[in-house]
Specification:
This protein is an alpha/beta fold and 289 residues long. 20% of the residues lie in helices and 26% in strands. Helix 2 links the parallel strand 1 and strand 2.
């Protein structure tokens, strides 16, 4: 029989942090918010409220950090409360940020909002968005190839029903999971892209992972694939592949690529458009069976 271990000394864990008894023992605020007096989401809402009430255009600019979460959600809720699904006129509220956006940037974005990030964004960009436009692009002084670098995280546009997203870079996994109406252009995606998608349109201009289109029952995806790897990475249970053949989708797709290049100033996208005669023939169209 081995000797029992010595007893643990938990005195440091059990020490009284305030022997004086003067500090409060429980939270003194109605909500357990993070320490900042005002969140960036609150600042955007307060700066935009009058413009929303008067239906006047306005611009907002601010730095953003990865601790700034759900930026735009409060403003979106206020617009929806006042004007319903109609929202505001296109790009009535233009908010530009520089830095690294925290999770759920642009969540529940609605018509009339345009949210722009010069930098990058974490997971859940555009979660539940129903309208408006979100643009994620590299920092102004970036020199790297956008299609070779990640710019947004996982589960982008989860459950979106409308609106447009342009991301000048690669996305993580489960891009556009449960998308049912949004239009998205991105320069690369990870595994499980377009999973359980029921509507909307996705344009992938770069690399992609495995299990593409798993459970995809609606919508359409266009994938640029000059190396013809998609047939081996597609989940064939519910979708099929077609090449474009000069039909109306060809014209729409080119305009979409141009829109992405204009919004993000992506040199990679401009080259694809400039060489459209060659570019077009390498696109797959992914549609439900």
């Amino acid at each position: 029989m081995t000797n029992p271990p010595p007893p643990l000394d938990l005195s440091r864990l059990l020490a009284d942090v305030d022997p004086s008894g003067k500090k409060p023992r429980r939270n003194q605020q109605p909500r357990n918010d993070r320490p900042e007096a005002q969140t960036l989401d609150d600042a955007l809402f307060l700066a935009s409220k009058r413009a929303v009430d008067e239906k006047k255009p306005m611009e907002f600019k601010a730095p953003i950090r990865n601790t700034d979460r759900t930026v735009g959600a409060r403003l979106a809720g206020y617009i929806a409360q006042k004007y319903g699904d109609a929202g505001l006129r296109e790009k009535s509220i233009v908010a530009t940020f520089e830095g690294s956006a925290g999770q759920s940037f642009g969540a529940f974005c609605v018509n009339g909002m345009q949210l722009i990030v010069y930098g990058e964004a974490n997971d859940y960009v555009g979660k539940g968005m129903s309208g408006g436009e979100i643009v994620i692009r590299p920092p102004r002084n970036a020199k790297y190839a956008t299609n070779e670098n990640a710019i947004v995280g996982n589960t982008v546009l989860y459950g979106a029903t409308g609106g447009t997203l342009y991301a000048a870079g690669q996305a993580g996994e489960r891009f556009c999971v449960r998308n049912s109406g949004a239009v998205a252009v991105v320069e690369g995606v990870g595994d499980h892209a377009c999973e359980y998608m029921t509507g909307g349109t996705v344009v992938v201009l770069g690399t992609f992972g495995r299990n593409f289109g798993a459970g995809m029952s609606g919508g359409i995806a266009f994938v640029y694939d000059p190396q013809e790897k998609l047939p081996t990475r597609l989940n064939h249970d519910m979708v099929k592949l077609e090449r474009l053949d000069g039909d109306e989708d060809d014209d729409w797709l080119r305009e979409c690529v141009k829109g992405h290049a204009t919004a993000t100033e992506s040199r990679y996208a401009w080259v694809l458009d400039w060489r459209w005669g060659d570019t077009q023939k390498y696109f797959w169209r992914v549609i439900p069976k």
